[in-house]
Automatic annotation (TrEMBL):
<dbReference type="GO" id="GO:0006813">
    <property type="term" value="P:potassium ion transport"/>
</dbReference>
<feature type="domain" description="RCK C-terminal">
    <location>
        <begin position="4"/>
        <end position="86"/>
    </location>
</feature>
<protein>
    <submittedName>
        <fullName>TrkA-C domain-containing protein</fullName>
    </submittedName>
</protein>
<dbReference type="InterPro" id="IPR006037">
    <property type="entry name" value="RCK_C"/>
</dbReference>
<dbReference type="Pfam" id="PF02080">
    <property type="entry name" value="TrkA_C"/>
</dbReference>
<dbReference type="InterPro" id="IPR036721">
    <property type="entry name" value="RCK_C_sf"/>
</dbReference>
<dbReference type="GO" id="GO:0008324">
    <property type="term" value="F:monoatomic cation transmembrane transporter activity"/>
</dbReference>
Amino acid sequence: AKIRQLQDLHQNSGQFTNLRLKENSPVIGLSIADVRFPSEAVIVSIKRQNKLLVPHGKTVFQKDDEVLLFISPIQKVDEVVSFMAGEVSPLS
């Protein structure tokens, strides 16, 4: 999985990670409330069709959503990205 690392925090305690959901993502069509997220991840925002969304429980994931996550500890990044997308489109 290729991801763009936006910022590493003090002492590698966490990382902001931005990913684009592909059509084969297991979370597409599900609301945030319906997905059991790893406790290491927090959804910060979702960018959809050039609009920034503040996510809430009723927000439904769609193909090509750009999801900004905060993941802590940093060692959990690969695990959380795999959970969210399985396969991730790189963001340039």
